[in-house]
Amino acid sequence: MFSWLRGSQKYKEVEVYNNVIDGLKKVYKKKLRPLEEQYKFGEFHSPYLNDGDFDAKPMVLLIGQYSTGKTTFIRYLLEKDFPGIRIGPEPTTDRFMAIMHGPHEQVTPGNALAVDPQFQFRALQQFGNSLLSRLEASFLPHPVLESITLVDTPGILSGEKQRLHRGYDFEGVIAWFADRADMIILLFDAHKLDISDEFRRVIDLIKKNQSKIRIVLNKADMISTQQLMRVYGALMWSLGKVLGTPEVIRVYISSFWDRPFQMEENRRLYEAEQEDLFADIQSLPRTAAVRKLNDMIKRARLAKVHAYIMSHLRNEMPSFFYKQSKQEELIDQLDKVFLALHKSKGLPVGDFPSVKQMKEKLLEYDFTKFPRLHQGMIDTVEDMLAVDISNIMKMLPREEARSKDHRIKGGAFGYSDADPFSQVRDLSKPTTYAAYDEGWIVAQDAARYDSIFEKLGPNPQGKIVGNVAREQMMKSKLPNSVLRRIWVLADIDEDGMLDSDEFAVAMFLIDHKLSNQDLPDKLPDRLIPPSKRAYFRTPHPAPRRDEESGGYDAGPTASHNAGPSASYSSASGGGYAGYSFSRARPMDDEYADDSQDLSSYIDRGH
């Protein structure tokens, strides 16, 4: 009876997905892949995806010229050898090797790997047996490999060697891995920064994945500080020319091997750079779903543009005569074809493929055999982007919350909270400074801080005034904004002066910050001096300003054993939770400018 109503409305079944990866699999197979197959997308751009591509662990791809330390870098991460490892100054790695997790150590040849549906390497069969004979998978039980897959590549050749044919499309294989990798690490040797023609072509191919690229200047410990500065500048200049982007690329400088440091003066720099890179790698498992979703969106937009290009070229071909000359004309003026499609169809310029690479591909095809535009398929992909992808994106917060605590373990990532060699020292964790944890963790250095305090000349009440404290704190050369935070954390009774215990807390926090650690938002319990702990147990009224004297009247409870029952928290606007003190704080707008001297806070009646 209501057939007319059903005919005028589109009833769409709401898809239910178990997780982000499951959703991406379903929408790709149902809505995007038919368009790709219709217009031969896999032959022009990226091979068609299978379940192994979606289920794969995050992949880290290492690329560099020979003897830049790619294989040694992997060994440094794993802290052990892996099956099939070959290290040497000559081009020892002559094959693509995927280092993956397995129940026991073994090497699987490429032909067997490429036909196994549980892995993502089936599409590599298109490159032929010449590649598959130079492809291997190294399996071993290792905790690092439970979270990520590492891919070692043949050393890129230079000089006469780069003119030798490898027997397969090396640059095409690199592009295939780069499209599927979650991180691409380009390694450079501090002793040889020259970028060969082959390396330049490889970088040009993968620079569309610039958000994944990380640059490592390896073996930096073998040169002096002065030489390192010159090498770093030369590398940045060379990369700017190759990548052709105005943005400055992040370069990690270190030596990724287990040899003793030769340049001890740069040790802290190299260790900090390593920690930064490892933290970057550490984030891969937690953000894998987001990256796969982003790659799917980019792929769908490119597939839609590709369909328009194929159908337009087909429509421009004559029916009978001069087909070959017209096809050559269209290829020669492909940039104008792109511009015409951009204007007529409203397609974003950034979604179009490389003109140069597209011209090379089109030379192999007959345009009259391209299909005409199938608007229904285009509408399906647009619906996928507008509806399905939007629904999948709503699942991301839940998925990220589920994987928030997931972290790579073992190997170079196998540190613990109690590890004294760890770079990160979280003052809120009981294992930090565990040897001094029975009481007050500042006690380990209290004698040294007390000696400095006595030299500053405390007043009869056993305190130093703000000006004196300021001069001592500024010797650290920390910015005023940081010193303000330390002052607010250390001045527990908020009287504008520091006693010996508060001064010790301030100096401890300065030393903590100077060792490249973050300051806490609030004073951890283990940093509160025993003489001040009553301030955090018993609530008391906020101090009241005496307008005549300009000082503060904390009432009858104001002493070293009483005070506000809360700690400073920048998250609550820079105050103490539950209390509203009337005097200015260093995080207030009046003192927010770093150009203001610290005295502009301390000296204003405090």
Description:
By secondary structure, this protein is α/β, with parallel strands linked by helices. The strands form 4 sheets. Strands 3-4-2-5-1-6-7-8 form an 8-stranded mixed beta sheet, sandwiched between helices. A two-stranded antiparallel sheet has the order 9-10. Strand 11 and strand 12 form a beta hairpin. Helix 2 runs parallel beside helix 12, helix 2 runs antiparallel to helix 16 and helix 8 packs parallel to helix 9. It is elongated and about 105 Å long. The N terminus and C terminus are likely disordered.
Question: What structural class should be given to the helix and strand makeup?
Answer: alpha/beta
The count of helical stretches stands at 22
> What's the helical proportion of residues?
40-55%
Mean pLDDT: 80
Strand residue percentage: 5-15%
Please provide the count of β strands: 14
Largest sheet, order of strands side by side?
3-4-2-5-1-6-7-8
Give short descriptive properties of this protein.
elongated; 8-stranded mixed sheet; 14 strands; 606 residues; disordered N terminus; alpha/beta; disordered C terminus
Task: Offer a quick outline of the entry.
This protein is of the alpha/beta class and 606 residues long. The protein has 22 helices and 14 strands. The strands form 4 sheets. It has an 8-stranded mixed sheet, sandwiched between helices.
What topology does this entry show?
Layout: H1 3-8, H2 20-38, H3 41-44, H4 51-55, E1 59-64, H5 70-78, E2 96-101, E3 106-109, H6 110-114, H7 129-132, E4 135-140, E5 149-152, H8 170-180, E6 183-189, H9 197-206, E7 213-218, H10 225-243, E8 251-253, H11 267-282, H12 284-316, H13 323-332, H14 334-345, H15 355-362, H16 375-393, H17 396-402, H18 446-455, E9 463-465, H19 466-474, H20 480-490, E10 497-499, H21 500-514, E11 544-545, E12 552-553, E13 568-569, E14 575-576, H22 599-602
Parallel strand pairs: 1-5, 1-6, 2-4, 6-7, 7-8
Antiparallel strand pairs: 2-5, 3-4, 9-10, 11-12, 13-14
Helix pairs in contact: 2-12, 2-16, 8-9, 12-16, 18-21, 20-21
